[in-house]
Amino acid sequence: MTNLFENCSYHSSYEPYFLDCTNATDPCYLIQYVDTIEVIIYWLNLVIPFILLTTGLFLNAYYLTVLLPNFIQMNDM
């Protein structure tokens, strides 16, 4: 069996996983598309948790500054 990606100008590290694909009209474009999607997923897995962590830290700090004076006043009564 010949390599499906042997005539491609772009080679990806994901090629061995797709060697058995037979329903591909343009495998060179598709393997480049898979590589692009993997890069996007990699960066989204870094950015989204960082945004959520930063938002949570700011909200916790805000609620601490709002509720701490009320808590101190409750203890003074």
Quickly describe the structure:
With 77 residues, this protein is an all-alpha fold. It has one helix and no strands.
Order of helices and strands: H
Strand share of the residues?
under 5%
Class from helix and strand fractions: mainly alpha
- Quaternary state, please? single chain
Number of helices: 1
Rg on CA atoms, Å? 26 Å
Net shape:
rod-shaped
- Give the fraction of residues assigned to helices: 55-70%
Structure description:
With 77 residues, the chain is an all-alpha fold. It has a domain at 29-76. 65% of the residues lie in helices and 0% in strands. It has one helix and no strands. It has one helix spanning 27-76. The longest helix is centred in the C-terminal third of the chain and has 50 residues, at 27-76. The radius of gyration is 26 Å and the shape is rod-shaped. The model has no long low-confidence stretch (mean pLDDT 85).
Secondary-structure map:
Blueprint: H1 27-76
Quickly list its features.
mainly alpha, transmembrane, G-protein coupled receptor, single chain, 77 residues, 0% strand
